[in-house]
Structures
1.
Amino acid sequence: MSNTSKLFEIGKKVDPIMTKYLIEGASEDFKPILLHQIEAGGKRIRPAIVLLSCEAAGGNPEWAIWVAAALELIHNYTLLYDDIIDRGELRRGKKTTRAVYGDAMALLAGLHYREAINKLINRSPASYKLHELISQAIIELTEGERLDILFEQAGRTENYITEKRITTPSWSLYLDLIQKKTASLLIASARAGAIVADAPPEVEESFSKYGLNLGIAFQVIDDYLDLFGKEEKFGKEIGKDIKEHKLSNALILLALEELDYKNKEKLLSILRKESSAEEISEGIELIKSTKARERAINFAEERVKIAKTAINFLPDSNAKTLLNELADSVVKREV
Amino acid sequence: MSNTSKLFEIGKKVDPIMTKYLIEGASEDFKPILLHQIEAGGKRIRPAIVLLSCEAAGGNPEWAIWVAAALELIHNYTLLYDDIIDRGELRRGKKTTRAVYGDAMALLAGLHYREAINKLINRSPASYKLHELISQAIIELTEGERLDILFEQAGRTENYITEKRITTPSWSLYLDLIQKKTASLLIASARAGAIVADAPPEVEESFSKYGLNLGIAFQVIDDYLDLFGKEEKFGKEIGKDIKEHKLSNALILLALEELDYKNKEKLLSILRKESSAEEISEGIELIKSTKARERAINFAEERVKIAKTAINFLPDSNAKTLLNELADSVVKREV
């Protein structure tokens, strides 16, 4: 078995408990709506990190199963709402919950998800601390989503959004954004494992550093794949970020640094309008003409190194090896 | 000071702590969006019930302040989402959060509300039990909202909704609906006070009964006021339920029981289409021609009696007197 599928098998362990808590207390007619999102698949990376972090920190991963299931549900909870906000029709090649059942029902499903998460956390050892941890993470995710919307260069007409729109972002603002929208949940995952293992604060901090750098690398590679991935492998439409007017893509930002005035304006104009497939390809070609791809990959590789170094002090274990391999797999998935 | 304003003063005590937890961890640009909903006013009934129940059960209400604030935030959390689902523009005479900031930002605000609630509960004594209590209540509220949508006779095109629509509801199905959409949060409020007071299970059960019957009475009177209230006093548009095609109004259901075939079909047809103000008045007249008003008020008064009887065993106290008066005020607000 490859290590990727080994990681998937570990993360998958939460599925029965996640499903059980998700449908608990729901009416028969509501259950299909609730199950739609989690049955759409996913790599189960977050629960794998929780379980492995717990074990690598010297804890018994069996005690981390509830919070691991909660972390996977939080991820799906945010996807449900992302699709409402972005009017998403497809995800992982399947119709989204809102596309099948409508926005109102998808929204209600999200409310129910949050309570399943709450019950899972309440069931966990160290529940008090875990409640604080995940509330913090969801608050950051929410702010990340707010910033992500403001990074869009067109497509929304609300006054608040057009007034606050971020049109000339710095790299550090981008890092702030992806730390919130992506890394925060990986930080919480790694940290949750350490908390259940009752690890000392400095160990928890090291896991936090692992999650942070893993999350940043993950998002930068995701941005890469959005523009240069293979559609069938990536499971998402290529150039979706351009189509959705998102300036919050590392490669677009890096390319804009390099392009001359004329080409920079051209790329920005493609982002600002409802572009055709041809224009999107043109935008991708412009990015290709710069060193953005190389720089993004170097940046992500550097972050993976930092993530691995952060947990290097741990005694050798199977779990530690898998956490290192998980970090490596983030960058490897692009080639 | 009248007892209504005394109750309001008690409920208002949570405002500073509610605001503090709500904006904690939020960026400056997000705060106005978060504050909009709670600054729109409200009678603060739920926190008043929490604080009074705690005191009437022999506890110190100072210890119930966090969960009281949480209950008021839960109420506002559901209003935020109700307005998204019903495309509401006005509430309590003010523009809704979604009307000012758009659906996407209102949705993100809701996510943040839920975490403020979580932190408030975590801060409370008996937090483990309170987490379970409020998750249960929110799950019921969500199911209540789902049923409420299915009680609508027109206005939504999603397949799921048109297929599952409830066109011939029974009174018991209506009671199930309002128990979930309205009473569940009043049950949780009364129960939360008893939990913080560390009251024995049978006392908690009595408070639950108080909340249930109060909630049912409250919703039936709300349905009455929707059709026969005075706009400026009620703070809502008259006939909104008819306009929104809602068959989930006690008075409409009671009237339908009495009307002859022709008038029954007429009232239903008004509910099923986009009706003019004139047609809405015509519908109200049809309801007026039956004994629905009288029956609804009798029903609500009966429920208020049951609510008061449920807590009658408690030793006399100022808090008990106010809980009784709060119950009475629910029916009194109609005259």
2.
Amino acid sequence: MFLPLLLAAQGKKSFSLDDLLPGGRTFSQLQPQSLYAEWWGDRCVETRIDSCWEIDVDNGKREVLFTLEQLNQWLGAPAGKPWVRSCYNVSFPKPGLPYVAVTVSGRPQADGTPTRTYVVVDFRKGEKVYEQTYPAGAGALDRAEATGSLAFVKAQNLYVVRGTDGKTVAVSTDGSDDLVYGQAVHRNEFGITKGTFWSPDGRKLAFYRMDQSMVPDYPQVDITTRIATTYSCKYPMAGEKTHNVTVGVFDPSTEQTVWLQAGDPADRYFTNISWSPDGRKIYMIELNRDQNHAELACYDAVTGKKEGILYEETHPKYVEPQHGLVFLPWDHSKFLYQSQRDGYNHLYLFDLAVPQDGDERQTANGGTCRERVKVSPLTSGKWVVKEVLGFDRESKSLLIGSNERHPLQTNLYKVALKDGRRTLLDEGDGVHYASLSESGKYLLDTYSSPTVVRRVNLVSTRKGRCLNLLDAEDPWKGYAVPEISCGSIKAADGVTDLYYRMVKPVGFDATKKYPTVIYVYGGPHAHNVEASRNYLARGWEIYMAQKGYLLFILDNRGSDNRGLDFENVTFRHLGEEEMKDQMEGVKFLKSLPYVDAGRIGVHGWSFGGFMTTNLMLTYPDVFKVGVAGGPVIDWQYYEAMYGERYMDTPQANPDGYEGSNLRLKAGNLKGKLQIIIGYNDPVCVPQHSLSFMRACIDAGTQPDFFVYPGDEHNMMGTDRVHLHERITQYFEDYLK
Amino acid sequence: MFLPLLLAAQGKKSFSLDDLLPGGRTFSQLQPQSLYAEWWGDRCVETRIDSCWEIDVDNGKREVLFTLEQLNQWLGAPAGKPWVRSCYNVSFPKPGLPYVAVTVSGRPQADGTPTRTYVVVDFRKGEKVYEQTYPAGAGALDRAEATGSLAFVKAQNLYVVRGTDGKTVAVSTDGSDDLVYGQAVHRNEFGITKGTFWSPDGRKLAFYRMDQSMVPDYPQVDITTRIATTYSCKYPMAGEKTHNVTVGVFDPSTEQTVWLQAGDPADRYFTNISWSPDGRKIYMIELNRDQNHAELACYDAVTGKKEGILYEETHPKYVEPQHGLVFLPWDHSKFLYQSQRDGYNHLYLFDLAVPQDGDERQTANGGTCRERVKVSPLTSGKWVVKEVLGFDRESKSLLIGSNERHPLQTNLYKVALKDGRRTLLDEGDGVHYASLSESGKYLLDTYSSPTVVRRVNLVSTRKGRCLNLLDAEDPWKGYAVPEISCGSIKAADGVTDLYYRMVKPVGFDATKKYPTVIYVYGGPHAHNVEASRNYLARGWEIYMAQKGYLLFILDNRGSDNRGLDFENVTFRHLGEEEMKDQMEGVKFLKSLPYVDAGRIGVHGWSFGGFMTTNLMLTYPDVFKVGVAGGPVIDWQYYEAMYGERYMDTPQANPDGYEGSNLRLKAGNLKGKLQIIIGYNDPVCVPQHSLSFMRACIDAGTQPDFFVYPGDEHNMMGTDRVHLHERITQYFEDYLK
């Protein structure tokens, strides 16, 4: 096997793990060139490390706006001692005004305390317009651009710096580890990413308050103190007590808080807080603990009174609202709502001006709904809306990303609000990410595909015109890059298409037999294969291909972007259908003459660690070597919000929990299995893997184990490189 | 290599790990036959599982005393439901009276609570004489035979059940995890094994009280609860705050406690509590935190007043008193004291009747002493007294075990008190353990040697006559047993003899080259080589020899039984001299044609884990594979009492701590090193190994790691078998 590898690599360079992994010392040097740009109203500004340039949206011509040196000078930094070290993170907050905003870190105050300061500079006049120093220790910063007010959290209490007089007022004073204000709740499920929500006019602040006093701490150990110590880490396990969330509305001018009168918060999830454009109502999607009944409720933002339920959705398995309301800029009586009620994530136009009785009725996905205002589907079909980018006010249309053209793609569309007619705005291939200018006139479209390394286009949403700003060269030219391909097989149901990626060994010779490693995730909310550069191949796959392995990655049923039925087939028995599909992948691999069926390995992290361990234990004669990272071993140790959605509670689904409890299969271990965890993993807590080790010891089997002390659920930076050296070595030791 | 192994094993059986390891399912079947006996005054009783037999001390003839069935009947157990399941643990508390004492477990009380009851039965009359039920949850039981009073600890408080009236009285009421009564203190160093000390007449109870409120908890995690929890585990690390110990004297009749007026207990160790024969004085050896100054103090047991210091000893390195005073039965003004002041552990006769000024003077070991009473050496020489067995009152002599005949042996001697003349009481070989009859007339001597599997003799201490009771057959007959030999090499100092054991591969062929594994401990208070059966070879060595490895075990300087200089050469830089000696072992191994110098591995546990890791990191080109169990990585994480004796504090000896901090050598790792720990190790806390993993990750090296959740410093039972499978496999994977 050595000779062909040498031949193939002749004259070509090899990758190191540092070249291929984020965190590697040379990783950035081997990435495709990027273009970073910001919208300044409808004007486009390219930000480089040392300067900012306006890109003419008509012809792509660049003109320098200012340099980093100038910016530092205007900020008042001493010569040769810049306060800002790159222009990448500036913003242009005022369309029409030549203002650039930047956060300056580490500038010491009179008393020596380092600060973070938000500064706005007029880059035409070269002078400071505004500055606001963040309080020391402040986190969860949330600025209301309209008023300049700033919400922040310090030591679990929420504060507001008023834009009017610069005074800091306390929203709460009883914050603690048990009582948390202004932060993301419900463990960031249901689309929750933050805990403060300014009204559109910046005059009121809705915020989360989370009482987690009833939630036990998972004992995490810090070994870096002189004598090891524990730190608190609230963790609401499946079937156990969960935190109680309430929502307040704070008025910085009166310093009063009104609480939304949502009733008993026990065993309920309050999600997707949205303001009405006039700032008088707050909408919230309310979900029962069972997660099979969602209500869209409306509250009076002044009194906190519940005004009613606008919409309800149920499903025998689960409903999963993840998106807030998006009001039409030109008609505040209408908003867009996202739902999978027709089986795929789509947009529905709700009309508050047309109330209706809303009898319960069946939905296409097998659930029910009640519409108490008029609801019209805006999009539909066997594909999913992946992103709402914003509106083009002039043409009264919406800009979205969807996978309508192909399950593996994301393409950009303009959707007419009046009739839902869609216009494709890109070439129709690849995976596109875009940002929309102020008025919706322009899209900055960054994309890649299996044949496009990285391209950035400026797209006129009205004219459909496309101006190319960057067409990156392949940074891997001259390297021995393996063949990366994509295909589909049928799922274990015999009907559904599943997509895979295959990375062939460097110097591939179809007459030889190669050791093969399946990389797997397999859980909801994610996928591994898409039609972007290299089909989304991970750097480690390239590295392994270079070492003579064939890599195979299959997105089984249960993963995302394929609709609700595809995902929720796993309900109440996570792992089962997923493994059946992966075994279809194995069947396919075994049909290939160049796959060595006696040397099949598997690797995955998190849900993929669960899959890896499960595959090793369920098919001990198929998989010779596995490396499972941060695995779920027993869903009763996972958190309630994510876990109960798919598994219900251990009390309600004892068979499902037993069937997926990998400790009960510990005695099946035959091959070599290494479990690796972050010793301080707050997501898949160490109890999973430690209890599995105990079970294996009791069953007389011999897994291997490794920990990264101080690391959490994923290894970052140089630890990531160390980790992948470790994973690679394990396959080298036992699969080769 | 395979063929010779087969030939050698032809017709011979192979061992499994279960055969060879304590905890293995078949271990006991392959152990030499034993004889269990108890002294009943000067009469000898053999206890078997189903019966007790008197052995005639003159001719060895056996006569049954009673059967297990009878015993259960007399106890009142229902037919077919025995309360006592073997006669092994009975005792004969009253010389001259036909009483047998037994502790009955699990006999339910009226309310269903299971109990433990101490019952004395007259086995001639077949009736109960006495019974005392232990309170539920009682631990640290300590019975005063003279009065029948019982001291016990429950929930950290100390109680006494009075023998007089059976009433339970509380000695303390404020016991807690911070304040502990009646238990061993100072982490069982300084010879401390318990926390209660009855006066000879059973009327007063001296006890330890330990305030450890100032000692931090090491956070141990229990993963067996629904959600993992921590439990408290006070751990006084080197250089950190240690607990304060005081000594009380409780009088059960008055229920009053008097405290010994020993002064400020901070940074002091109170050890070797001894009563005067008349119960009026208490003696205690008091040691400073630096452990280089010991004082033998005398207290009035009635008032608690300190009466004075009888003796002082200092040493530039450390003094280590480990033995209480032993008064002569026939002269209560004299007692025996053990000391290493002449360089080896010897006996000194102190005469209270002859007080003296006691000026400070130099001792032979390089320290000083002050004798305030007359002190006469009883034994001396370049060998150590290992055990004081008791007295023969008639001949006014003492029975001891010592290694006078050979450093690797323990032999039994009678020592005349008047002139110290010693008489050997055994054959002069092997390692002897003995128990002495009431009057000192008979010794029950159990021993083994490289040529004696196990022999039990009844020795008449006066006549020197020896009656053989058991000569066990070799239980390994028919098995392929490797050749086990012993020899000596010079230490790195070029002068000192070091003893090694070598276990040659089964089917050894001197023309071949074998992978070689060094098993090492290397720390103080222990040795691995002695002149007992198989030179003390561990079962795992036999197993490895069977797999084709050569095993080599060398007791380096720093280990026990060889005198103070041999031990304390390691002072303030643990690991250094020890490794130099082990490298002399490697030099010797490399001189042997049948040792493969390219395949040398090393394995050890605890101090041996420290040695293993240190050797792997200090000599990365010598050792290819290592397995280190429960290792010390950084002595600042070890406890103060043991650690500071050898290393002083981190504050006082920063260079020594840095030089022995294995984290600082993490980048040197070249071979394969697996670290294995009990996840709940309260001795070498997980912080050692976890911080080492972190250091290796940061240094870019790749150790392996495994944990036994729920296990402490050593794996027991089936976990021990699992562990050794694991260790073996690691050498099989990487050294073979």
